[in-house]
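Fold Annotation — chain and its backbone

Encoding — discrete vocabulary of local shapes
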Amino acid sequence: MEDQGREEARQYPRFKLEMEVTVISPTSGLAPGRTLEISERGMSAILPVELPLGEMVELNLKLPLGSVHMRAAVRNRNVFRHGFEFVQPRTAREAMKDSFDSIVSSS
């Protein structure tokens, strides 16, 4: 019940999305991972490293119609699960729109 209330309070809905992501971190270098969820403002991913909170990183998503590159800040972390906030959400949304729409419509 508590999770449902928290989900309803979100400004931007989240969608489950499992795909490859590579994170380029100033402290950890290249870290391959797997996305879990995505929204208009950010995403979560499992990585084999623990990135510092607040660090600015590059995200490279491998979408069906090609790769998308964007900047994000590490906003939260629970061991290897990381939450990222896109630095330029409009640019990220525009870059992912075609691939994301095709993924959602095919589910």
